[in-house]
């Protein structure tokens, strides 16, 4: 049952501000340089990026669907108001553990986007250039596979002697649910 719900969540999470393809190659993505490649992860240096983000009320599938609906409605209102919103891939699901766990959903905004943020549920988020450790994996995205790959990434980073932020991880997803194959990533910030 959980797998079915997560599959449905993935379907709903796909941004709809513009039509999307199954590959980032045809749509804007955050730019980065590969610093180092290892067997279990890649070290990347990302440039400054902009996102629209909404917080989730919980970590269950209904909260993910509600967050996706919030971002979709925001994009539709922006278009109706004449504001250009150039979205791209990936979508990010950021989970923070610790004393006050939280989860948020973010959609990448391509350079040249000019949304007017008036919705209190949607916040603009500017991410400064940073180094991120990335583990790629395939298959239909789910919370379970993201957490499994986070564990593998954490162990690989520890073994490689890398310092990283352990209480925040990001699931990055690049394709529509209807894609024949899926490219997913787990991101962890360099400390």
Please summarize what this structure is:
One of its GO terms (molecular function) is heme binding. With 191 residues, the chain is α+β, with helices and mostly antiparallel strands.
Distance between the termini: 37 Å
Q: What is CATH's topology name?
A: Multidrug-efflux Transporter 1 Regulator Bmrr, Chain A
Helix- and strand-based class? Answer: alpha+beta
Give the total of beta strands. 9
Please give the radius of gyration in angstroms: 16 Å
Report the CATH C-level class.
Alpha Beta
SSE string, helices as H and strands as E:
HEEEHEEEEHEE
Overall morphology: globular
CATH H-tier superfamily: Regulatory factor, effector binding domain
Task: Explain the overall architecture.
The chain has 191 residues and is an alpha+beta fold. It has a single domain, classed as Regulatory factor, effector binding domain (Multidrug-efflux Transporter 1 Regulator Bmrr, Chain A), CATH 3.20.80. The chain is built from three helices and nine strands; from the N terminus they run H-E-E-E-H-E-E-E-E-H-E-E. It has a nine-stranded antiparallel sheet. Strand 1 (32-37) and strand 2 form a beta hairpin. Helix 1 (2-13) runs parallel beside helix 2. The longest helix is centred in the middle third of the chain and has 20 residues, at 61-80. The chain is globular. The model is unreliable at 1-23 (pLDDT under 50).
């Amino acid at each position: 049952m959980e797998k079915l719900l997560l599959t449905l969540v993935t379907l709903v999470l796909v941004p709809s501000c513009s039509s999307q393809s199954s590959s980032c190659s045809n749509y804007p993505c955050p730019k980065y340089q590969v610093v180092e490649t290892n067997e279990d992860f890649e070290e990347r240096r990302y440039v400054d990026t902009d996102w629209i983000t909404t917080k989730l009320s919980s970590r269950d599938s209904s909260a993910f669907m509600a967050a996706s609906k919030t971002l979709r409605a925001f994009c539709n209102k922006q278009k109706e108001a004449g504001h250009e919103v150039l979205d791209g891939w990936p979508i990010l699901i950021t989970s923070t553990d610790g004393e006050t766990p939280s989860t948020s959903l973010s959609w990448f905004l391509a350079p040249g986007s000019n949304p007017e943020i008036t919705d209190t549920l949607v916040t603009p988020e500017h991410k400064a250039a940073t180094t991120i450790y990335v583990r790629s994996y395939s298959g239909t995205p789910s919370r379970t596979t993201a957490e499994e790959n986070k564990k593998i990434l954490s162990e690989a980073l520890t073994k490689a002697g890398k310092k990283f932020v352990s209480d925040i991880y990001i699931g990055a997803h690049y394709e529509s649910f209807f894609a024949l194959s899926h490219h997913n990533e787990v991101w962890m910030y360099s400390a």
